[in-house]
Structures are given as C-alpha cells and as structure tokens.
Write a structure and sequence with these properties.
Layout lengths: L1 H37 L3 H16 L5 H7 L4 H13 L3 E4 L9 E4 L3 H20 L4 H30 L5
Antiparallel strand pairs: 1-2
Length: about 170
C-alpha cells in the first residue's frame, strides 16, 4: 500500500513538472511572437519586457541588473541597450544621488504595446486563477518560489562548475 502511495506521488510530481515544462514552452513561444510583433530580436524584446516589468513593480533596473536577468555580458548588454535606446524603446537616466548609477526606463509606447499584446492573455489567466481560493494560490506561490530558488541554486552551482576546468 505504501509503495502504491509513493508511486502515485511520484507520478503526480512528474505530471506537475511536465505541466511546468509545457507552461515554460508556451511562455517562450509567446515571447518569440511578441518580439516578432514588435520587430525585435527575441533578446531585445526580453530586455524591454524586463525593463518595463521592473519599472511597473517600482524597482527599475540598472544595466548591470538587466545583464543578470537576461544573462548577457557587459559588452553585449551595452550593445543591446544602445539599439533599444536608438529605436526609442528605452531611456537611460541618472536619477540616483550617485550620478554614476544608470536607471533603465521603458519608452512611452512600450507599456501600451505590451498591454495590447499581453492584455487578452492576462484577462484569461485572471479568469483561470479566479477559480482557486486565495489560500490555495498562496500555496501555489510558495511552491513556485521554492522551485525557482532550487533552480537558481542549481544554475549557480553549474555556473561555478563550468568555470572550473576538469583538471584543476
């Protein structure tokens, strides 16, 4: 009996992970379509979305923080920001008391375009989540936070392992 329960839990965990992989695939495809819709390379569109989302949360990004979020080198991030700024998709400002600190802001049309593209999906997702009580959504939030923390730790370990050569 206990083995059957363990097998059922293992199967449930696998279904959950498969569902999350499917969601990740859908998210990647949606991001690709948004980039095409804006006429941008997917990395550029991802950067624009990261900048706009951080700004919306009230925690605008610096170039260094953006390069961590979309893993790019400093040079690649600078080139990307130059392209986005030249196209009017973002601005770089010096709002901090330390004038060396650069803050990234989305261009005036970006939030409008993102709302136009993602708005219908956001409404559908809100409708889907409305079926779940707040307590369960809180547990889902905790679950996803735990998964992301686990993935972050694993990626950090793999990054450290990759930097070390096999013979050192």
């Amino acid at each position: 009996m206990e083995e059957a329960v363990r097998d059922g839990v293992a199967a449930q965990r696998e279904r959950l992970m498969e569902g999350l992989r499917g969601y990740g695939g859908h998210y990647a495809e949606l991001s690709r379509r948004f980039a095409a819709w804006l006429g941008l390379h997917s990395t550029d569109a991802t950067a624009v979305l990261e900048i706009a989302a951080a700004e919306e949360r009230g925690t605008p990004l610096s170039p260094a923080r953006l390069s961590e979020r979309i893993p790019l080198s400093t040079g690649a991030t600078t080139a990307l920001l130059n392209r986005l700024e030249a196209a009017g998709h973002i601005t770089r400002t010096r709002e901090h008391s330390d004038r060396r600190v650069i803050t990234l802001r989305s261009g005036p049309h970006i939030q409008e375009r993102a709302d136009e593209f993602f708005g219908p999906l956001a409404r559908r997702l809100d409708t889907a989540m409305a079926h779940y009580p707040p307590e369960l959504l809180e547990r889902f939030e905790s679950f996803v936070t735990d998964l992301n923390s686990t993935m972050d730790a694993h990626l950090a370990e793999r990054s450290t392992a990759t930097r070390r050569s096999p013979g050192s």
